[in-house]
Amino acid sequence: MSITVEPVKPHIGGIVRVSPDHLLDDETIETVQRELETRGVLVFPQIDVSDQLQLAFTDRLGDRVNFTRQVPGSDAETPDVYKITLDRKLNAEPDYVLGTFFWHIDGITIDQPLPKATVLSARTLSASGGATEFANLYAAWDLLPEDEKREYEGLTVIHCVEAAVRPVHGHPSEERRARYKAMAAVMEQPLVWTHEDGRKSLLLGTHADGIVGMPGPHGRALLARLQQWAAQPDLVYTHKWQPGDLVIWNNQGLMHRVVPYTDEGRVMHRTTIAGKERPGRPARDANVERIYQVA
């Protein structure tokens, strides 16, 4: 075989050994697609891909999608490649990057099928911080007690960009809020997502702002507890980047966050594989208003 996958933990993570010359082979693509469903996140250590090879790899795995064209750093040099950086020469509005310090799922506040997978390559690293943590939301659901599963199925959660960046800015100005609304939608997503293949996962992240039908504090408290549950050590893989690393993860079944860093020189290149399943829909105004009521 030209490719091998070494498990990292029982519930998450795999280290992929393959030559760059074989990255686009049928065997590699079939292995990656299979292992993404079981391992969740796959690491190609120091494989050192170009943008062109990363895009070709992305395209072999599915249709390419770019949901950040309105965000500074997108398409800066190569179409459909988003540069994740705090470098103000490339990104004059770092809100979107600073928000990644908190648990999130890519594209969950966009009215489109949820992206299937994210591909990220390390170009320049920070002197400290900058590791990426991944939490398996399939396993988080599977390991819940049965009585809690019955309680959570059928619940609907409001997700929005404003909640995702609230830890960054606290209470944003009206001008910032208007920009957030232009970038994305306020979405209703199921708390428990039953995928087309029958598997179930939780849908969680800092962008989850309340539960429909519950007063705001009650819903947020439940979401906070579930986020802590999903981030228990056995379900989390922390990747400490090396230059040239390539990582791909199942965006439909994992949440992730970055260990905070301040180095403006850190640069990562992201490409995204489109999904076909659309778990949620744009939120109804009445449901949004309800989650901001105390009782």
TrEMBL record:
Could you confirm whether the keyword Nucleotide-binding appears in this record? no
* A Pfam family the protein falls into: TauD
> Which positions fall inside the TauD/TfdA-like domain?
5-272
Q: Which UniProt keywords apply?
A: Dioxygenase, Iron, Metal-binding, Oxidoreductase
- Spell out the molecular function terms from Gene Ontology: dioxygenase activity
The UniProt similarity line reads: Belongs to the TfdA dioxygenase family.
Identification of the protein by name = TauD/TfdA dioxygenase family protein
Q: Which organism is it from?
A: Novosphingobium soli
